[in-house]
Design goal:
Layout: E1 3-7, E2 13-17, H1 19-31, H2 52-98
Antiparallel strand pairs: 1-2
Helix pairs in contact: 1-2
Length: about 100
């Protein structure tokens, strides 16, 4: 995200929002999430065999899968919130420039 600071009279600064660039970056982040999905590779492979190692492995894998799914949900929510905030900032900027 690019920000441009310009000094104005009285020592204040102005930050210009590059809306299209920000939204494009957020959309790229959204598109990067689906490959993070972790499928259950071992389902049905171990059949009737009961090995403690396999059970522990599957439990760990399920824990990792749950954490990854939670992470994806959090990132998606953050992207959604950021888009809404950027839209609000853009609308406020446009309202200020109209007045």
């Amino acid at each position: 995200m690019e920000k441009e600071l310009q000094a104005t009279g009285g020592g204040s600064s102005e930050i210009k929002l590059d809306y299209e660039h920000v939204i494009s970056t957020l959309e790229n982040a959204e598109q990067a999430l689906p490959p993070l999905f972790l499928s259950n590779v071992y389902e049905g492979i171990n059949g009737a065999n009961k090995l403690e190692f396999i059970e522990q492995w599957l439990e760990r894998e399920e824990g990792i899968r749950e954490l990854l799914n939670q992470y994806i949900e959090i990132v998606e929510k953050n992207i959604e919130d950021t888009k809404a905030n950027v839209k609000t900032i853009k609308e406020q900027d446009e309202a200020i420039t109209r007045t």
